[in-house]
# Entry
Amino acid sequence: MIFHWQLFLLLILIGVFAPILGFCENSNYDGVRQIRYSWFPFFVITIPMIILSGTRIINMLDFGDTSAYLSAFNESTTSISELVSGFNENTKDRGFLVFTAIVKSLIGSREILYFLLIASICILCVMITYKKYSTNFLVSTFLFIASGDYLQWTFNGIRQFIPVAILFACIGLILKKKYVPLIVIILLLSTIHATALLMLPMIFIVQGKAWNKKTFFLTIVIILSITFVDQFTDLITNFMENTQYSGEVEQYLNTEGTSIQRILVYSIPALLSMIFKKYIDEANDPVINLSSNMCLISALSYILSGFTSGLFLGRIPIYFSLYSYILIPWIIEKVFTDKSVKIVYIAMVCFYILYYYYQVHVIWGL
# Structure
């Protein structure tokens, strides 16, 4: 059984002692209180997160697909000729095969080092982004853990989370509209997991103010997809028929949709951005506009997966939901008074802890 109490305890200790020891500073930018933490508290929480994820083969081998990745690593070749031969037999996500072969040639058969390296890449990309762009790094980190995203995606589905995390760290390129390097990065990451290609149109759609015409158009598309769900699933099947996932689509689409509890939780940031859109428009902060649009796409994707397949379409929103944990603390600090902020944070912590307990113990049975 795992509940990551140690991580929540570390967050509490950082929140209490960082201001006392001078490891964070408060500032006010455009009416939003910002708490900026130094690198010391950053590593105090980040390193344990990496270690817990990277050493999971010791005590959590049966969770998710960890055992499958362990077997793939052990069976991976370090021979160039064998690797080229394997390309002809396996057309799926060749970039990950190359990555694994290179790593194994450098570290040998040290399994824990392999998982620690992947955990370091993913978690550092996420945490550095929160440190740079969140108004409250500590709150964003708490939400990343308490939402279940940390456990679900760094202990499971790591092949997909590598492009997710790296693209999340490319937020600066998205904000600056550096499309050429973005497209190159997306194409390279798609060789690790093909779902990265979904970000090609999204880097254009999410530009602009929150809830703009492009995102409204996407909303209409999702609503129509739900209305004509049978035709939509047929379209997916036909589209994927000639791809590397052709043998998996039918199996994926036959699974149950995403649970209503998960849909509701991941729709909260989009609802908040809609309710407090006036404040977002007034601030016109590019990071918050981008995060609002990403949150909307995340919520719509989860809603669609609730009517179709949680296993197939439920894997897509992680590309967008990480932005929610930038948006939530910004809205709380911007909208509420100094006195009410504490009450809102307490309510938020209680809500997410209860959800985390339900997700981890009831749903996943850990």
Summary: The CA atoms of residues 99 and 348 lie 39 Å apart. Confidence is low (pLDDT under 50) at residues 231-243, 245-249. The longest strand covers residues 24-29.
